[in-house]
Amino acid sequence: MLNLDDPAARQALRMPRQDQEHTVELRHRGEGWWVDFKVTFIPEDPKQCVQPETSETNALVQPAAGENVEWWYHRMVVTFLNLTEEPNERDPLSIIRHERLVSSDDHYDLVLEDCRQLMKENPF
Questions:
Q1: Angle at the Cα of 91 (from 58 to 12), degrees rounded to 5?
Q2: By residue range, what is the domain housing residue 102?
Q3: Where in this protein does the record put region Disordered (predicted)?
Q4: Are 105 and 59 contacting, i.e. CB atoms less than 8 angstroms apart?
Q5: What is the pLDDT of residue 102?
């Protein structure tokens, strides 16, 4: 299990290749507490894109001028490992973030911020 504040976690949280499902178990430590969680990247069908979308959930890298680039989307599912029940997409306490992401981005900071925010809202 990786410590979320460890530089190795940055590499572990990089997106997998197009057709690979990728799961990482991480531990985020605070002062006197920690939370263990799992990040799973799930590949989805590739999407065709000319202009990048502007929403946070579908952020795309800007393609070179005139290029029509095929982007591969993944869903990133973050779940707590200390839950006794299976994650439920409709249960906000079981999933920190569940959204579409573009590959080749480093989502370390995104996950870290979600963990910090969730711990503020739901301290153990």
A1: 50
A2: 2-121
A3: 1-23
A4: yes
A5: 44
90, two tokens = 């409709």
Count of domains observed in the chain: 1
The residues, ordered by sequence, that sit 6+ positions from 119 with a Cβ below 8 Å of its Cβ are 28, 30, 33, 35
List the beta strands (DSSP E) in the chain: 2-3, 22-29, 34-49, 69-80, 95-102
For residues 48 and 70, give the distance between their C-alpha atoms in angstroms, rounded to a whole number. Answer: 5
Q: Residue 37 has which token pair?
A: 């969680």
The predicted-structure confidence for 50-75, as pLDDT tens digits, reads as follows 444 444 444 444 444 454 444 455 56
Average pLDDT over residues 79-93: 54
Strand-strand pairing, 2-3 and 22-29: parallel
Whose tokens are 């985020």? That residue is: 28
For residue 103, the 8-state DSSP code is T
